[in-house]
Amino acid sequence: MKKQLLLLLTTILSLNCYSQISFEKGYYLDNDNQKINCLIKNIDWEYNPTEFKYKLSENSEPQKASIKSVKEFGIDNTSKYIRSTVNIDRSGDHTNNLSDTRKPLFKEEELFLEVLVDGKATLYKYTETTLRRYFYNNENSNIKQLVFKRFKVDESHIGENNAFRQQLWNDLKCSDFKMSKVENLDYRRKELVRFFEEYNTCNTPEDINIKEKEKKDLFNLTIRPRLNSSSLTIQSPYDYRDTDFGSKIGLNIGIEAEFILPFNKNKWAVIIEPTYYQNFNSEKTANVPNVSGGILIANVDYSSIKIPIGLRHYFFLNNNNNSKVFINFSYVVDIPLKNSIDFTRKDGSHLHSLETSAGRNFAMGIGYKQSDRYSLELRYQNQDILAKYYTWSSDYKTLSIIFGYSLF
Q1: Which of 81, 129, 157, 301 has the most neighbouring CB atoms within 10 Å?
Q2: Do 90 and 52 touch, CB atoms closer than 8 A?
Q3: For the purposes of burial, counting CB atoms within 10 Å of the CB of 285, is it exposed (0-12), middle (13-18) or buried (19 or more)?
Q4: Residue 365 has what DSSP assignment?
Q5: 231 contact partners, CB below 8 Å, separation of at least 6
Q6: H or E segment to which residue 403 belongs
Q7: Nearest Cα to Cα of residue 195 among 212, 205, 181
Q8: What is the maximum alpha-carbon separation in the chain?
Q9: For 35-51, what is each residue's pLDDT tens digit?
Q10: Predicted local confidence at residue 358, as pLDDT
Q11: 277 with 198, same domain?
Q12: What span, in angstroms and rounded, lies between the C-alpha atoms of 138 and 162?
């Protein structure tokens, strides 16, 4: 079953990796300020791009445009980038690579800046893997970086240069603003966007928040009842104690918290799913000549609370993203409630006793979700519940059909 599920997951991945390429209506300006309407491949960039792919029509071949040939490009009602030559401070922000100086160390670079708020005052963002900088300009002024820098005062103290607050106070005046408005401002997208929106509203009501493109549902809480088919086999250093306990059908329920990651068009999510009381009880009798009475009875009584923690990836099946396939891989934290495997003779005398433990515990699943409300998942989980023993091993498998209903 494990091999079949892996094959199915691989097939889904290969079939869907092409279907997710989404070319959406947009435009770009070339170096002669000519506007070309086109379809741009929207990959919901987490980091600022230096190039993008586009098509002039639905049936034309994709082409590539780079920062050298494009002054500006955008996807309708979604995102906008402009090319600009700016001074950027690339000082490290991690504790182990902080600069010793308070002043920003500027370097002139040509970048695509993402427009967050467009209006009388415009807010831009530039992001790389370990770097995030915000820029701004007011009407026809040059684009400047909003300065924020952490620096090393000495071996045990870290200082902050929050010059961006003074920049905003000096350059973006509004009669309703008080000094406290900038004194408590953090160098974060949400707070800066709100500040620029309020400034533009104070001066002109026509500001545009580019990032209010589509309300992203970044958290889902889902009730997930399920039907489980579980089986257990154990292998011992004594051949006559190898036992196949067969399969058991059971019902239980979990509640899943899903945190959508805000990039790559909401295709990735982190999932945490406490699952209440999964149990497996079975008894097997075997004829064993070298055991007193000739009969060996094996009993297993195992139950636990399981908490899968994992990563999920979505494959959208239509343009409005309300129909999607997903796969997830999880590490399962196992909290045993009952944990015994006992071997006894026919007369009831005790022969051997084992205690189960969590062991290696992984799960993978494939499913379908409709309208961000209803879901169905097939999940496979494999675990060694005798991992604490050097000479014993086990194979505890569970195949689950999981139904989901999202509360919000």
Answers
A1: 81
A2: no
A3: exposed
A4: E
A5: 245, 246, 247, 248, 395, 396, 397
A6: strand 393-406
A7: 181
A8: 97
A9: 999 999 988 888 999 99
A10: 67
A11: no
A12: 20
Task: Enumerate the β-bridge partners of residue 306.
Answer: 275, 334
Residue 296, domain CATH: 2.40.160.20
| Structure confidence at residue 18 (pLDDT) | 44
CA distance 223 to 329: 19
pLDDT, residue 327, reads 95
64 token code pair: 């590539």
What pLDDT, on a 0 to 100 scale, did the predictor assign at position 390?
Answer: 81
Q: For position 17, what pLDDT does the model report? A: 45
Rounded to whole angstroms, the Cα distance separating 265 from 399 reads 31
Give the per-residue pLDDT at 160.
92
Give yes or no: residues 298 and 198 share one domain.
Answer: no
Task: Based on DSSP, count helices (H) and strands (E) in the chain, helices before strands.
Answer: 4, 23
Q: Do 189 and 131 touch, CB atoms closer than 8 A? A: no
Domain range spanning residue 243? 219-406
Measure CA 135 to chain center.
27
What size, in residues, is the chain? Answer: 408
Question: Residue 301, exposed/middle/buried by CB under 10 A (0-12, 13-18, 19+)?
Answer: middle
In the prediction, which pLDDT does 136 show?
97
- d(CA 406, CA 196) in angstroms, rounded, equals 35
Q: Side-chain half-sphere of 189: how many Cα atoms within 13 Å?
A: 15
What is the C-alpha to C-alpha distance for residues 21 and 71, in angstroms, rounded to an integer? 24
Other C-beta atoms closer than 10 Å to the C-beta of 18 total 7
**Which regions in the chain score pLDDT beneath 50?**
1-2, 4-5, 8, 12, 15-19, 212-215
Judge if 306 and 257 occupy the same domain. yes
**C-alpha to C-alpha distance for 36 and 388, rounded to whole angstroms:** 65
CA dihedral 134, 139, 142, 143 (to 10 degrees): 10
Tokens read off for 176: 């309703």
Distance CA 10, CA 12 (A): 5
Which amino acid belongs to residue 239? D
* Domain total in the chain: 2
φ, ψ (nearest 5 deg) of residue 322: -95, 0
**Mind listing the pLDDT tens digit for each residue in 82-119?**
999 999 999 988 877 888 899 999 999 999 999 999 98
Res 19: pLDDT: 43
Verify that 194 and 294 share a domain, yes or no. no
